[in-house]
Amino acid sequence: MSIYDKIFPPKRYTLDNGKEVQQKRSRAPIYVIVILIMSIVSIKVTGFDPKVLATRGNQFFVILNRMFPPEPSYFGSIVTPILDTIKMSLLGSAIGSLLCIPFAMLASTNVCKNRVIVAVMRLMFSIVRTLPTLVSALIATFIFGLGTIAGTTAIAIFSFSYIGKIMYEEIETVDMGAFEAMEAMGFTKGQAFIHAIVPQVMPAFLSNSLYNFEGNVRYAAVLGYVGAGGIGLILNEQLGWREYPNVGMILLVLFVTVFIIESVSRWARKKLV
Amino acid sequence: MNDRIKKAYESRPKDWIWHLVIAVIVIGLLIWSLGAMETSGSTKNGGKMALSILNGIVHPDTELLFNLSKEGVLYLLLETICIAFMGTVVGAIFSIPLAFLSANNLSPKPIAFIGRILIMIIRTVPAFVYGLMFIRVTGPGPFAGLMTMSVTSIGMVSKMYIEAIEDLDTKILESLDAMGCSTWQKILYGILPQLMPNFASTAIYRFDINLRDATVLGLVGAGGIGAPLIFAMNAYRWNEAGSILIGLVVLVLIVEWISTKIRVKLTRG
Fold first, then answer.
1. What's the CATH number for B59-268?
2. Is B110 exposed, middle or buried (0-12, 13-18, 19+ CB in 10 A)?
3. Residue in chain B nearest A260 by alpha carbon
4. Can you name the CATH fold of A72-272?
5. Does the model's ipTM exceed the 0.90 cut?
6. For B155-193, how does the pLDDT look when each residue is reduced to its tens digit (9 = 90+)?
7. Contact A103, A164 (CB under 8 A)
8. Reported pTM
9. A-B interface: how many C-beta pairs under 8 angstroms?
10. Best interface-test mutation with A: which of B12, B34, B129 has the largest number of A CBs within 10 A?
11. Is residue A217 a contact partner of residue A151, using CB atoms and an 8 Å limit?
12. From A48, A60, A91, residue closest to B30, measured CB to CB
């Protein structure tokens, strides 16, 4: 019995047959109070004001309106950057998802029996995952110089942590019977992993990698902002020059590209599972 | 026994051609991608740069980290949490009508289709573009960041909401109907209890993501911890960047831990 139930004792009902049942009081008031307090603090700190939104909300559509109609003649300058973005995402996703496999293996308790290694690997995945992609892209531009290599590195780092976390969770739910049988037959751990666990987690791995690639194409658009190549670079440039019809065209091309990639990848993922 | 194993082995599906085709396509695409890899040079100092970055992160500016004033990391983190929290709340509120309109089982097909396209369009526009648009409305600062977060949340949140709505068990509504409940009672006792845990769980999950993505806002001056972080990095003040990064990582890890706990509780009831 928690403290809450002591302060607000449960309601008692007596049924027709004389039996007594209890209904616990709803916890909703606590949640409402917590959310209210957080909202009030947030509103204070951020200066959120619905009145401003109501009176000046139309300003939001000013830039949007100038983007229409998009400038079709700008299409020629978009092709290379958008292809660069796709290439960055593709290569980055592939490198990240392949690289994470051995680490994911070490981070799953059923393959790696050493608690310390498991904990260290998981902590590493968590920390890498919390590192904002933008920051890793910025660091990569300092190390590799401006350009697509920096963007690819940032995407690879993100994919590494994202796929890694999903994979170690996936590996832990695997049926270990085949793995143990193979170890008993004299296979080494690595061989047993390849023949017993890989086939079981393969569909999930491919499906998640595709999904990750899909998201990365969208995310790669931001990376250009810090000079990491791709479509973000010209998007930032055109925004700076206030060439909004060109911005509209860039966004349109990005939308169509993302739509096509998503459709293809969804189709492929349906086939996989 | 051995014969049966051999037979089963031979009769397994022979789809290696299919696999080969896929492998060739994937490897081809990867090689094609390699063609775009370029850099503007300056790789000579790369190693030295990496070392100084690492050095800065290992030796963070502790004075900045524990400073309680408005420039300190702690206040910046509070501001970031507030932006992410209100952004998630506002985004979740925007998402509810959008999700109900785009759910296939509740609204007519053409409207649902238009709603889905709209959600996709909202999702595609990068966050800093929204940031610039909202700065026109609210002026630079955390308010603009909050609105940006809310709009960027709409895409994912409404997508998950749609799934929850489409999974609704309508038999409960029928039985409530049979008991003579009014529309309001049907919503209160039939629909809300089914949707609430799911909606809350999605919002909490999105809060996690927003907290992590809040650095992007700093790019356009929309508040939060992003701007000081990026300034510090661009000025090569790695100790400062290190202290901000450590604060951010620790905060995100703590929030993630709490939110996972809450979400597990929500799904298990």
1. 1.10.3720.10
2. exposed
3. B120
4. MetI-like fold (1.10.3720)
5. no
6. 889 989 998 998 888 888 888 888 888 888 888 888 888
7. yes
8. 0.83
9. 169
10. B129
11. no
12. A91
